[in-house]
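Hey team,

Sharing the SRPBCC domain-containing protein run so nobody has to redo it. Sequence (139 residues) first:
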Amino acid sequence: MNNFLVEHKLFIQARQEIIYSYFVQPQKLSQWLGRSANLDPKYNGGLRINMNQNDFVQGNYRILEPYSRICFTWGWDGSESHPPGSSIVEIILDPHDNGTWLTLTHAAIPDEELDCHNQGWEQNLFRLKNLLQEGVAYG
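Structure output:
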């Protein structure tokens, strides 16, 4: 596996603490990412996201700095090239004026999954932004 990286940065008109909650509360996360989630938001606490009834992401929280930074591992159940916990996602929340700059990086993605993850994060972060700014729920 090579250390391929996906990075997205977007401005959301919402406070940091609100955005943060959409990464650590299962009922909120599943409004924009996947169908359902089991989350234990503490150091080394597990996360499991049912993406589409067939594909499941699994990992562990590594860093939880309330309202400013979240890091967790990521991988796919049953995958040999990208198993649970083999890549890492970091979210930085930086307050600015009437909203927050969200920066997401996803590192150590297998090269054959780079485009899929880049498009997936772009689409899902757009959903998060729409949900928080327009009240448009997905799922």
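The two ends are 32 Å apart (CA to CA).

Ping me if you want the raw files.
A.
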